[in-house]
Amino acid sequence: MASLGRASAMIAAGTIVSRVTGLVRTIVLVAAIGAVGRASDAFSLANQLPNYVFQVLSAGLITAVLVPQIVKWSAREDGGRGHLSKLLTLGTVVLVIVTGIAMALAPWLIRLFADSDKYTPDQLALGTAFAYWCLPQVFFYGMFALVGETLNARRVFGPYAWAPIVNNIVSIVGFGAFIVLFGGERSDVPDWDPLLIGVFGGITTLGIAAQTVVLVAFWRRTGLSIRPDFRWRGLGLSTLRGTAGWSFAMLLVGLVVSAVQQRVISGASGDHVSATGWFVAWLVFMLPYSVIVMSIGTPYFTQLSEHAAAGRDDEVRADVDRSIRTLGLLVVIAAAALIAASAPAARIFTNGPDQAVAAGAVLVGFLVGLVPLAVQFVVQRTFYAYGDTRTPFFFTVFQAAIAIGLALLVPLVVGPADLTSAVAFCQSLSSLAQVILATWLLRRRLGPLGVGGWVWALVRFTLAAIPAGAVAVAVYLLAGGAESWMLAADVDGISGRLLGALGTAVLGGIAVVVYVATLAAFRAPELRTATGLVRRLVGR
Questions:
Q1: DSSP 116
Q2: Average per-residue pLDDT in the chain?
Q3: Which of 500, 479, 371, 377 is nearest to 429 (CA)?
Q4: What is the pLDDT of residue 95?
Q5: What is the DSSP letter of 235?
Q6: What DSSP designation does 231 have?
Q7: 150-171 b/e with 16+ CB inside 10 Å = b?
Q8: pTM for this predicted structure
Q9: Spatial distance between the Cα atoms of 73 and 226, rounded to a whole number of angstroms
Q10: Which residue windows are transmembrane per the record (predicted)?
Q11: Rounded alpha-carbon distances, angstroms, from residue 80 to 1, 228, 516
């Protein structure tokens, strides 16, 4: 447990710094392209294409296939050196091929995710031009995931969490220089020519390449010497092919969901929060998820994989229960605090109170699903620990069907101004349905999971978070709501964003204090555990 604590502390520290610098990166990026506009949406859509692939690679194919295999191979006499050389060579070849195919399909990918009836021809052309510059990120994201998950599986946790800071620094400097040289707020399509597109897109991809190069520099800590090895026979590809096949199917399902959602919110592009607001809200949403879930959950997953590989099912069940309770106490208040401070948080990345309120509604839509997503992290990776990617595929299809169905219904119910926030809320509802099914399926596989115990714990945490969030909302309303200093109605530029950040800190701090006080008043047993964990993380 001490080693898990040290690993969690290192990952948490790196993730916090990475996410903070990532927020600064987004602020500079939005200052360059704007938060609402056809050009900003075209860039955001193009820049997100490689991310869709990376999210599935890191949470599906890489995590599902690579980590359990490395844990198993590490027990061998050579530490898995021979098999890793073959696997990483194969992965590099696959990434080169996939990246090339993606670039060749760039015009069709843009039209897949953008409704051509809602996007203008010039906007589609601009998105395609950006895509050619952004899609090489697929290779660097994939290599980053391959090397990073290998380091994690070898219990070298720090570099994977810290390397993205390099990307953020490169991007901050690059986007800042772009603003100085060419000006900012280029949210209209006519503002862009081939030179500007190449510079801006090149800066974005350069940052991803830089973080990958830095991560590779830490490879020596694994103690393994890797060389190119194209002799893939003996790697067990028949087994891996079946596992990877289901993960690839999940990739296609995820892409279909994202395509439908982006096409739906295309109807808001130009005048309302659309693609850029969606991705900015998702970035803020992922801050607590990354800091809490990834930093604590990633070392748990490595330990859980070891217990699963050894056939110690009782210890796996204990890992599931302990990790959900620990994550739940922290994630619940993170969701409540950010919901209360959603508008000031969105103000950090927007240019006025109206945009902040609209983008804040999108953030709230995502935050409803934060707790289910945290539980899903544990449940899904338990299946992966047993080498089972088939079952996750089926409950992913279930979630996808719900997400797509609800997204298609949204335009029939709400107007363009509320499209993006409504689709985000539907995404959260589908995540809740997914985790219920996934937990039931895991119980069928492993037997009693103590579900009643950790569900009741999550309910108690939520009951404590409701008054905490309510007090923070009351403070926001008493301060003036949409006219308060937190949204900086009469302040432009960096000063307005700083006021939004300050407002977010004030409201979030109030919510946390009330939450902890409520749990302490009712003597919640998990509070002492979580407090000790946080204290150890901060100390380390």
A1: T
A2: 84
A3: 371
A4: 85
A5: S
A6: -
A7: bbbbbbbbbbbbbbbbbbbbbb
A8: 0.82
A9: 14
A10: 20-40, 52-75, 87-110, 130-148, 160-183, 195-219, 240-260, 280-302, 327-350, 356-379, 391-413, 419-442, 454-478, 498-522
A11: 25, 14, 46
Is residue 408 within 8 Å of residue 420, measured between CB atoms? no
What pLDDT does residue 51 have?
82
Give 231-272 as a 3 state SS string.
CCCCCCHHHHHHHHHHHHHHHHHHHHHHHHHHHHHHHHCCCC
Q: Can you give the residue range of the structural domain that contains 363?
A: 2-539
Give Cα 158 distance to the centre of its chain: 18
CB atoms within 10 A of CB 477: 11
Looking at residue 393, what is its pLDDT?
85
214-247 burial code (b ≥16 CB/10 A, e <16): bbeebbeebebebeebeeeeebeeeebeebbebb
Query: Is 62:210 a contact under the CB 8 Å cutoff?
Result: no
Tokens of 23: 């927020």
**Count of domains for the chain:** 1
Residue carrying structure tokens 């949210």: 187
189: number of Cβ within 10 Å: 22
How many other C-beta atoms are found inside a 10 Å radius of the C-beta of residue 316? Answer: 23
Q: Which residues of the chain have pLDDT under 70?
A: 1-12, 53-82, 152-155, 157, 222-226, 232-245, 247-248, 294-302, 492, 529-540
